[in-house]
Design a protein that fits this description.
4 helices; 35% helix; single chain; six-stranded parallel β-sheet; globular; alpha/beta
């Protein structure tokens, strides 16, 4: 049975990915902040692990419960749409620590148990070109693109492929009164 690990599995895209892979009879390990948010997805093939991907020790502990991975989908992400001059240190740390460092932490631990397979990083069009009021988010996604490009050169010979997906806005709870779609 194929095994996939999905970060941010309770959000819009992550929840859809979790359901998709369960329907395809994959063994899904959902890395989530809150296990209760996946309560509607009952399956013998679903394993939920609570983790704070911003915290390396939490990530290390979570991956200590995983013995093999065919596919890692780094989906967890946070976003704000705000003029940079109105941002604060907390905004910067939250976005960079989640979107970039969290992805790096999960990838580092996944590579320790992957023999072959694929890592898919959910980036953004904001990682290809800057978008107004998304400067921190864009920085995190540009960083993710560079990380992935470099990592792919290291892992290809080990039969681990690295891919980035750069979607535009997707209709999820991410877009709300505080974060209006441009």
């Amino acid at each position: 049975m194929n095994k996939v690990v999905i970060t941010g599995a309770t959000g819009g895209v992550g929840n859809s990915l979790t359901k998709h892979f369960l329907e395809k009879n994959w063994e899904v390990t959902a890395l989530v902040r809150d296990k209760n948010k996946l309560s509607e997805s009952h399956s013998d093939n679903l394993k939920c692990i609570e983790v704070d991907i911003k915290n390396f020790e939490s990530v290390k502990k979570a991956f200590g419960k995983i013995n093999n991975i065919d596919l890692l989908i780094n989906n967890a992400s946070v976003f704000i749409s705000k003029e940079f001059k109105n941002c604060n240190e907390g905004d910067i740390n939250n976005i960079i620590d989640t979107n970039l460092k969290g992805t790096m932490y999960c990838t580092l631990e996944a590579l320790k148990v992957m023999k072959k397979g694929r890592i898919i990083n959910i980036s953004s069009v904001s990682g290809l070109h800057g978008i107004e009021n998304q400067s921190i988010y864009s920085a995190s996604k540009f960083g993710l693109m560079g990380f992935s490009d470099s990592l792919a050169q290291e892992t290809t010979r080990k039969n681990i492929l690295i891919s980035n997906i750069c979607p535009g806005g997707i209709n999820t709870p991410l877009w709300n009164e505080n974060n209006k779609y441009p």
